[in-house]
Write a structure and sequence with these properties.
The complex is a heterodimer of chains A (280) and B (414). Chain A is mostly helical. Helix content of chain A is 71%, strand content 1%. Chain B is α/β, with parallel strands linked by helices. Chain B is built from nine helices and 18 strands. Classes of the chains: A mainly alpha (280), B alpha/beta (414).
């Protein structure tokens, strides 16, 4: 008999996460990542191509509506490239939130029948969302590189380009934190289940995805600073086109917001984890 | 000497009635608002103790059966042991790796192939990838699905699906295995195979098995020891046959009819609300003469149900032998689900067949896929008991389980 000993007793601490156990279940993490990827495009003709069709079509639509018809500024960047670039961080973030933002309800059948650290599920979603991001990046580069070579658009800001992996990491944490928070909340109140798609939609409009921060008035710009997503999306544009408003203050606020959401998310998630099986 | 494998000390679990189920934000706000204005909206929901003061030990290599009526707390105990929910008070020590099997096929994804699902289900149950890979061929052989490994499991017959799911579970190698009623699905031959596997796991590999079951003969046969739960308390424990007898004696005290207690909410899809024994004239009865046909009537509320489902009735004698089990499969396929309606089903069998004595009726409702039951809605083992009197019985009561009309005759050949 192995020497493992587990003690089960009511958890009284207001915050407790068993990190070591989380690590023990890493095989499940990878299996879930694989499941999400394979299952999503089973029985579709185009398969993973859908990962790139969505942002491409969205960018074309934005180009037609905001670029051509409404003449929204894109900081002198080719509108199509501008939108396609903005869709990289936004698509990644919204993908995480849509797929992990309702973890408890979506997995109720499994969660009431077997134990494993529930945090594995949203973590698997975040990792799984990196695959479409990578595919979208390839598509973006396919349009971007010829445009830069032909001198049709400004070149990259090399410093920020080198920092993009870190920006992506922060995006992941922000997506995870927000998802944990909404999951924890919707475990108890079903309301949020319906509000989630709506939240994603609103968040798109208050984030500089279809417009640059430079177009905002001074007051709107302050408000935009409270959206942790703002400088992250702008960072992507700055990295590729050298435009976009990325200041230390904005980045600092964004980092603080990310950490705050992550802490609040972890707290709400582990609280919900303890009692979810009783309320379902 | 060796340490105990499971130590349970004064475990209690409290649910708040009226709070089970989802709260909406609005309801919570209303409660908060009326609370602030000093007018409680409704009486605070009562506490309900699903378990109270439960303590026991299990030694390594023991197979222990947990028995008891519905709502006795057996499933809650298993959920706490498998960490799906937390106890309200008390402490449990588990020595060794634990795996729980509360359902077959937990986490199966219909779109994925059999191969992928073996890995997915195995990982969900706590197996390492390398471990699954090592046992892969064995699992596939046990399930007998070699030819369909790369087919999505949604195309599997329900029998194949259950076999594959159980095969994965059967190859878990935990030190402690917690099993709940999973044997209620699948065909008889496969159930026997599963029981055999479970027995082998404990007998030969020295693993500890905790087994919640309604199948009294399986408990008597397989388990070294049994624990009887009632009303959230551990009522008795000891040698399996004697605890089973104690339970059956209690169970046979409910005669002739059953109604769902008003506090019990029942299953969300199909819920049994009543059952009774009917005399040949159609009147409720609890004793029938030996030569009268027996009719069992069941009332089920169809709730949020979309799939076809079946009722099963089992008849047990006083020793817990299952005399037979029958499903209403032929008629079930003729009726469409009618959410909100109450179904009244009758099962009649001709007599004389039963010996004078006390019998218990077990009932379950299962979702049906094709012609095989796949998911259990509700199960009552037993639902109620009834008596067959010696009235109309000619001759002596001989050995054996049943007593049909038997005629002897003779002639001389000279």
């Amino acid at each position: 008999m192995s020497h493992l000993e587990r003690i089960i007793r009511p958890r009284r601490a207001w915050f407790s996460i068993d990190w070591r156990r989380l690590l023990q279940y890493r095989d499940l993490l990878w299996t879930l990542v694989r499941r999400d990827f394979v299952a999503r495009y089973q029985q579709t003709i185009l398969g993973p191509a859908w990962f790139v069709i969505q942002p491409l079509v969205a960018s074309l639509a934005f180009t037609a509506v905001f670029g051509r018809a409404l003449h929204t500024s894109t900081d002198q960047v080719n509108p199509f490239l501008f939108y396609l670039c903005g869709m990289l961080p936004w698509g990644f973030f919204s993908n995480i939130l849509s797929n992990a933002g309702n973890t408890f309800q979506a997995n109720a059948a499994v969660f009431t029948k077997v134990y494993f650290p529930r945090l594995i599920v949203p973590c698997a979603v975040v990792i799984g969302c990196l695959a479409p991001l990578a595919l979208q990046l390839v598509v973006f580069l396919a349009f971007y590189l010829p445009a830069v070579a032909g001198g049709h658009t400004a070149g990259p800001d090399w410093t920020l380009l080198a920092l993009l992996p870190l920006v992506t990491l922060q995006l992941s944490l922000l997506g995870l934190g927000t998802s944990l928070l909404t999951s924890g909340f919707s475990a108890k109140y079903r309301d949020l289940q319906h509000a989630l798609p709506f939240l994603v939609q609103i968040w798109l409009f208050v984030t500089p995805v279809i417009y640059p921060v430079s177009q905002l008035g001074p007051r709107a710009r302050v408000l935009a600073g409270f959206n942790p997503l703002t400088p992250l999306v702008e960072s992507f544009r700055r990295a590729f086109f050298g435009t976009g408003t990325v200041t230390p203050v904005l980045m600092g606020m964004s980092l603080a917001g990310t950490l705050l959401l992550l802490a609040a998310g972890l707290y709400s998630f582990q609280r919900a984890e303890r009692t979810f099986a009783d309320t379902v | 000497m060796s340490q105990t494998s499971i130590e349970v000390r004064e475990i209690a679990k409290k649910y708040r009635l009226g709070r089970i189920g989802f709260t909406s934000l609005r309801a919570e706000l209303e409660r908060w608002w009326s609370g602030r204005r000093g007018r409680p909206l409704a009486a605070e929901p009562e506490d309900f103790w699903a378990l109270r003061d439960v303590s026991f030990d299990v030694a390594p290599g023991e197979i222990v059966g947990i028995i008891g009526g519905n709502g006795a707390g057996k499933s809650t105990m298993l959920k706490i042991l498998s960490e799906i929910t937390e106890p309200t008070a008390g402490e449990i020590r588990l020595r060794g790796q634990v795996a729980s099997l509360l359902e077959v096929g937990t986490g199966f994804h219909p779109e994925l192939s059999g191969r992928d699902n073996i890995f997915l289900n195995g990982a969900t149950l706590g197996m390492k990838r390398a471990e699954i890979r090592r046992k892969f061929d064995e699992i596939v052989a046990f399930a007998g699905v070699e030819k369909f490994l790369d087919t999505p499991v949604k195309r599997y017959s329900s029998g194949m699906y259950v076999r594959l799911a159980f095969a994965v579970a059967a190859h878990l190698e935990p030190d402690i295995l917690l099993v709940d009623e999973v044997l209620a699905v699948g065909d008889h031959a496969f159930q026997q195979k599963c029981l055999g596997k479970m027995e082998a796991v404990a007998r030969h590999d020295g693993r500890t098995v905790l087994f919640v079951s309604h199948n009294m003969s399986a408990v008597s046969r397989l388990c070294h020891r049994a624990m009887l739960f009632e009303g959230g308390r551990l009522l008795a424990q000891g040698a399996a046959p004697s605890v089973v007898d104690q339970y059956l004696a209690k169970a046979t005290a409910v005669r002739g009819r059953w109604h769902r207690p008003s506090g019990q909410k029942g299953h969300a899809k199909v819920s049994l609300v009543g059952g009774r024994l009917l005399s040949p004239s159609g009147a409720p009865a609890d004793v029938l003469p030996h030569d009268a046909p027996v009719t069992i009537e069941l009332e089920c509320e169809e709730r949020d149900v979309t799939a076809a489902w079946v009722l099963r009735i089992s008849l047990y004698d006083q020793q817990g032998h299952e005399l037979w089990a029958t499903q209403d499969i032929e008629v079930a396929s003729q009726r469409m689900p009618r959410p909100g309606a109450t179904l009244v089903a009758r099962c009649r069998f001709a007599s004389p067949l039963l010996k004078p004595g006390v019998y218990t009726v077990g009932v379950s409702a299962c979702e049906l896929a094709g012609d095989a039951p796949v998911a259990l809605y509700e199960e009552y083992e037993p639902l109620f008991a009834f008596e067959i009197s010696a009235q109309g019985y000619a001759g002596t009561i001989g050995r054996g389980l049943v007593r049909p009309n038997i005629e002897w005759s003779f002639a001389w050949r000279t």
